[in-house]
Amino acid sequence: MKLLIIEDDIAAAAFMKTSFESASHVVDLAHNGTDGSYAARINPYDVIILDFSMPKKNGLKVCEEIRSAGKTVPILFLSVIGDTAKKVDALEKGADDYMTKPFSFDELHARVRALARRPHKIETSILTAGDLSLNTERQVAVRGGTAIYLTRKEYTLLEYLMRNQGTILSRGMIMEHVWNADSDPFSNTIEAHILNLRKKVNIGRRKDFIRNVPGRGYMIAVE
User: Fold this and answer.
1) Residue 207 is part of which domain span?
2) What percent of the chain clears pLDDT 70, i.e. is strictly above it?
3) In the listed set 63, 95, 117, which residue is the last one of a domain according to the structure?
4) Cα of 47 vs its chain's centroid, Å
């Protein structure tokens, strides 16, 4: 899952980033409303966590701009302001949920997962490709009954490929969804992680489901 956290408290934003990255999510940060609004409108995210009071643009304005741009990404407001009228304002501007500070990280993670599960489409927690399965709740990959150890980035890459099984994913799409905005798009990190994934999921000379489509990208295809 790829998240955008728009939060002007740098320390709080760093704590949240670390917490979500420890759960194998990819996290981008923005520390003011202008930067956050821009990032949300040009990049694909699964959930946005948005502070209410921020410099340059407040959360309500940012939320309004995201929705005006046609983005339907779930937005969770996170604020010290617990006033009911403010919550109503946020929901009417297009927010999907609202939490007040201080908060429990366990609850924040649970709410983010719940938002990510909401339609556009209902997604099961078990993804399969042939005899390869991925439990997205437990973050465990299994092939032919054998568990596969994956690093956090390998897991995130495999989940993205499996959620889009049968679809060619360009290098740019993979970089946007699996790596954060600070990553070097010209490095060979994608190729290196694909190579490592193949070694792990194809152990025992099993069929390779990860296809390299020359000049176009990668995909998981099961015949």
Assistant:
1) 126-220
2) 95
3) 117
4) 7
